[in-house]
């Protein structure tokens, strides 16, 4: 149980369900102490193992936190559905940079940021798997989830480990059962295959100006800009899943921009009904919902 330190324990009521929150340190990397918050139903029995949402917050790899109000609310809310919710910290490598993650940020720096975020997320997942009994986690039913930069991080972690990770053996026990992505993309969707495709919930706006809806440059950068980097967004991912006859729930917002990355708390019932059918009961469900953005 390397790096395991219980920082805080509290119990509180929410509009969803009474729950407990416990904070652990999962790794220390130079000046960064990386923590995760574990939300569990209150009075959970010792030997109970529950499906788990492993959540990565957004913020352009420069801002945000695991306990930001929306992220904490989501991870607490999933206990209503019989899940453990875990919100993770990771290194915000673009903090303090003049270019942040813009079109002026060199492509090589963007790739390195994606790589280190992938490694941090997989380190958090490895900690969860190693301590699954203590955390009440069913390691066969871990949903990788994130929004915006976090969605990019989890999608790259799920599908592009061979590209970003040098020592794959370190994460051989980490298996994901599903994906929850709000406005996310992968660096290269060709890494998604029939063998590794997972049941996925994808939300995305067709006019997203930061993370491409289909295949387009990150931040819609012009080719002559240092930060020109092609990414494959939710549309491309959904097409892959459709072709592989893998389950997906694809919510398209026509005209929607990057605000679609916001966690849709009022749609959690539909989202976790999908995971109940596909991840917990192994059904194949392919759903596409098209909504037009309203002013």
Automatic annotation (TrEMBL):
<dbReference type="Pfam" id="PF20434">
    <property type="entry name" value="BD-FAE"/>
</dbReference>
<keyword id="KW-0732">Signal</keyword>
<dbReference type="GO" id="GO:0016787">
    <property type="term" value="F:hydrolase activity"/>
</dbReference>
<keyword id="KW-0378">Hydrolase</keyword>
<feature type="domain" description="BD-FAE-like">
    <location>
        <begin position="36"/>
        <end position="152"/>
    </location>
</feature>
<dbReference type="InterPro" id="IPR050300">
    <property type="entry name" value="GDXG_lipolytic_enzyme"/>
</dbReference>
<protein>
    <submittedName>
        <fullName>Acetyl esterase/lipase</fullName>
    </submittedName>
</protein>
<dbReference type="InterPro" id="IPR049492">
    <property type="entry name" value="BD-FAE-like_dom"/>
</dbReference>
<dbReference type="InterPro" id="IPR029058">
    <property type="entry name" value="AB_hydrolase_fold"/>
</dbReference>
<feature type="signal peptide">
    <location>
        <begin position="1"/>
        <end position="18"/>
    </location>
</feature>
